[in-house]
Amino acid sequence: MRRIIITGASGVLGSELIKQLMECNQYEILGLTSSKELVKKKVPGVSYFDAGNLSPNNISEIFKSDSIVVHCAFSREEDGEELAKSLSFAKQIFTISSKSGCSVINISSRSIYGQKYQPPWTEDSIPVPDTLYAIAKYSSELLLESICYTNNCAFTSIRLAGLISPKLEKRLINRFVDQVLEGKDIVISGGKQQFAYLDVRDAAQGIIAILNSKKNIWKKTYNLGSNKVYTIIDIAQIINCVANEISKKSSKIVITKNPAKLFDGMDSSILYSDFNWEPKITIKETIKEIIKRKNYYL
Q1: Mean pLDDT for the stretch of residues 150-168
Q2: Average of pLDDT values for 109-118?
Q3: Phi/psi of residue 53, each to 5°?
């Protein structure tokens, strides 16, 4: 049974990945997490370890040769100190993994492309990270490449689209849903901003497709995202439509003038082709799930 080690195991992506891997019933799953409560829990099918307490003894226990490490752990905040800690932890994980004979899938971000060049961005597009988070994510890719080449282990970095899920409360979609369910107007500044969101369940499925492949076909980087791009106005209209179907509620969409632009959208065709996989969950289906979850608690 192949061993899969997931860092950031209590995060939105890490926990979804573990859930789906457990359903496959063909992996030995180990999770590294900062959640002390999760480490103490006895979860059938998963062994959790404290990510902040790696020692020579448990390193040899966790990182067995020929395991695959999926590195999801990373701060999402624009905070230099937290991002520096994330990079330090990434370096530790990459070094331990490569020296232990493990392969590594590093979860990077579409934010590394920045806004200088218009999408769709391919893996060959010039990285122009324009935030601290994006710079840190691109740095993690370079760290991985350097460490794994030195130790001759298989690796890839996955440039992941923006994720959506009922658990991601700060996302634009979740905030718009809140406004509709609370009977408030949806106020949009501008309207031309683009978003190419990916449901977290599809993201986990895409990663599992890579896990099930032969490592010798892995490329250095892959884009993992949806081929659908929506404007912020499109998203508001879809939310209104779905909310009306489920809850008989909708909001007035108020658009204020703002020349601001935001580009989004990656070409993920190489990943689709290499692993014979494509996203299946539509943005409308995700919005339905978000509204149903929120209605349950209202």
Answers
A1: 97
A2: 98
A3: -135, 45
